[in-house]
Structures are given as structure tokens and as C-alpha cells.
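Translate sequence into C-alpha cells.
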Amino acid sequence: MPITMNVVISVLALAVSILSMIFARRDKDADARKKALDTLENNFRERVSQLDYTGNARYMETSSAMSGIENRLSRLEESVKQIPTHRDIDVLQNAIGLLGQSVAKLEGSVEQNIQSVGRITNFLLERSS
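Result follows.
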């Protein structure tokens, strides 16, 4: 059976049909892959947006908490500035010690004055009787 032009044309037509089916299939696969990639990209973008929103919310919460801590720290620093130092306490202790010595000296004088007032009172009472 000799190969005629009709057979060659038929075989070529069949090959073109098969190749067309293969390329069409590839195009469909490419479209499906493109759709899958688009879906994946959209899901990725949505997740990044959610993470960004969550990150911003956490940043705001943290920022607010840090602001509160800063305020508390500022108040604490102001309070600490008012606390006396060791030197101040030493000076006060020395002053209290000196005051105690002065009070001890005055106690002796006061006791003598009480005795003197008592004698004067007795003298005046005896004289008026």
C-alpha cells in the first residue's frame, strides 16, 4: 500500500488534532494553575492584612501599656526625689542626738526650778498662816 497524499494529509490532520488537544490541555492546566496561584496570592494577601491588623492592634495595646508604665515611672521618680538620702538621715540623727543632750541638761535645770518653786510656795504658805 503506497502512501498517498490523502494518507499523509489524514495523518497530519490527526497529528494536528492531537497536538491541539495537548496544547489545549496545557492551556487549561495553565489557566487552572494561574487561578490556583491567584487564589493563593489572594489568601496570602488577606492573611498578611489580618496579621498587619493584629500587629497594629497589638502595637497599640503595647503602646498604651507602655504609656501607662511611663506615667507610673514618672510619678515614682518624682516620689523618689522627695525621699531623704543617707546623708540627710545622718544629719537628722546627729541633730536628734544633740537635742537629746540639750533636753538632758534642761531636765536638771527644770528639777532645780521645781524644788525652788516648792520652797518658795512652802515659805509663802507658812508666812500667810
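Note: Residues 85-129 form one domain.
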